[in-house]
Amino acid sequence: MFDQQRSTNRDAAEAFRIMSVLAEAGFVAHLAGGCVRDALLGKTPKDYDVATDATPESVREVFGKSHTLAFGASFGVIGVLPIKSANQNRDAPLTPTEVATFRSDGQYSDGRRPDSVHYGNAEQDALRRDFTINGLFYDPISESVIDYVGGQADLKSKVLRTIGSPHQRFAEDKLRMLRAIRFATTLGFQVDPATTDAIEQHAADISVVSGERIGAEMRRVMTSEHSADGLRRLVETGLAQHVMPGLLDIDFDRLTRLRKHLPCDSFAAALACVAIAGEASHQILLQTSRDWKLSSEETRQATAAVKHHATLIRAAELPWSKIQPVLIDRDRDVVVSVATAVATADDDDQTGLEKVRGAIRWPADRLNPPPLITGDDLREHGIPAGPMYRIVLQTVRDGQLEGEISTADQAWEVVKHVLSKKRT
Ligand code: ATP
Ligand code: MG
After folding, report:
1. What's the gap in Å between 106 CA and the centre of ligand 2?
2. What percent of the chain has pLDDT over 70?
3. Which of 34, 206, 242, 376 is deepest in the core (most CB within 10 A)?
4. Are residues 216 and 335 in the same domain?
5. Which amino acids bring their CB within 6 angstroms of ligand 1?
6. Which of 157, 187, 206 is at the close of a domain?
7. Ligand 1 centroid vs 137 CA: distance in angstroms?
8. pLDDT reading at 17 higher than 90
9. Which amino acid residue places its CA nearest to atom 6 of ligand 1?
10. Closest CA to 241 of 230, 251, 249
């Protein structure tokens, strides 16, 4: 099942090395969780997690303290560093493999994390996991899947279901409700009816989860190819009200069309599409950026796309001086992909966007010719600094971009004209 990944993927090979070292030291060691799920689905796992009956102390002893990181020691998780081969770049970062001791979780009192954990066996460790499809192990010795929770059957029938009572599991850790929607969305699965009912009942409790954590899950939902379905599920289950209230006013048919024409990997573009399909685009961006503590770069990109996509779609009829600033901006690519998605989804005329695509390929000095005069030039000519500078320079720039003027002398004529108008 993992043969191909072991030979082509360093992280997979590393996880198998770690499991064999643990086995030689007399411990049980399995691959666990997401990587087993993904391999059974024929997808490439994001990471390869190992679960073992060795305690964190034993794991550190077996691999040596200097080759391990105690990053989640209170939950029984140790990071094991890979052995560097001679031909590897000395400065390349070392990605540790997470090795977690089989455990069962104690009481939950904060709605997010267990107050304590107890080391146990593989079956107990499967039962503390969130969903059946995430509760599978792979044993490298027998080369077989170990399934205590019916995960394989649910993978086959494409159903997302909690392990054990959904009420209890969501009461323990509220984030699981959003994870349920995330996995169902990204995998294209149905959520089991009892699991859905429980989400509907507990939806308001999602508010105990931090905005950043909510944002991290929402990012996965929104960049998924089925994102419109996922966001609709959030509304239907009542989670939307608490994680992204703007979704309550979204035109989902339009969003579905928009997303069909948008490449999935840009979160900023995905967020812009949601905002554009909403009633109050600006409000959605503002609130999301604040609630999920988005980076200023992502916020800026999404805002630029919402603000300027219509300009690019109408590029054939607008003056060049209105379009050019968007095309030289650092966020141009996001704006262009959102504009393309909107125009295609709304069946708009594409002439403007064709013009845009052509201009993007121009040499730099044609797309963005050096200015004819600058603020320094104005200062040197003794023009007192003030708000007029911006108006003067903008007027000159617009004239230059429109092809009305092309020399410094002509620019100074414009300056004189603007200043004299100001005086009258
Ligand atoms: P991916 O890495 O692709 O997002 P994953 O399944 O690996 O998917 P992680 O968040 O990396 O998800 O978690 C690894 C495993 O830990 C999960 O497969 C699941 O078994 C368990 N797990 C993670 N979060 C929880 C949780 N909140 N409650 C219970 N089990 C969890
Ligand atoms: Mg993972």
Report:
1. 22
2. 98
3. 206
4. no
5. 33-34, 46-47, 49, 129-130, 134-135, 173, 175-176
6. 157
7. 13
8. yes
9. 34
10. 249
